[in-house]
Amino acid sequence: MAYRKLGRDSSARKALFRSILTSFFSYERIETTEAKAKEISGLAEQLITLAKRGDLHARRQVLAQLMDEEVAKKLFDTIAPKYNNRQGGYTRVIKLGPRRGDAAPMAILELV
């Protein structure tokens, strides 16, 4: 399986993803680099699919990924029910342009 390492070791990458996912579900829209947005997009879709299932095991799997129980509750109670009739494609990546300072390509990641 190919994935982006983002210049970090596995534990730092996992912590980064957990933090970004928590913020993403909290605000439902975040601005980050394109590479991070593309990686987070797939992870967010998996968590929404788990939340759509809604059973206890799914809730515990989601809580293992997110850093805040309130955000997990929001995911199960408000975000997942919106996508009951949708088979996937819950997120959208909108490219912005280079970041001032280091010219890193930026993007907005949002829920559809």
UniProtKB/TrEMBL annotation:
Can the keyword Transferase be found in this entry's annotation? no
* The family this protein is said to belong to: Belongs to the bacterial ribosomal protein bL17 family.
Instruction: Report if keyword Ribosomal protein is assigned.
Output: yes
Give the quaternary structure: Part of the 50S ribosomal subunit. Contacts protein L32.
Which GO molecular function terms does the record list? structural constituent of ribosome
| GO annotation, biological process | translation
Please report the name of this protein according to its UniProt entry: Large ribosomal subunit protein bL17
Can you tell which superkingdom this protein's organism belongs to? Answer: Bacteria
- GO CC annotation terms, alphabetical: cytosolic large ribosomal subunit
Q: Which organism is it from?
A: Dendrosporobacter quercicolus
What HAMAP family does UniProt report for this protein, alphabetically?
Ribosomal_bL17
Q: Which residues form the signal peptide?
A: none
Q: Which UniProt keywords apply?
A: Ribonucleoprotein, Ribosomal protein
The record's section on Pfam families has: Ribosomal_L17
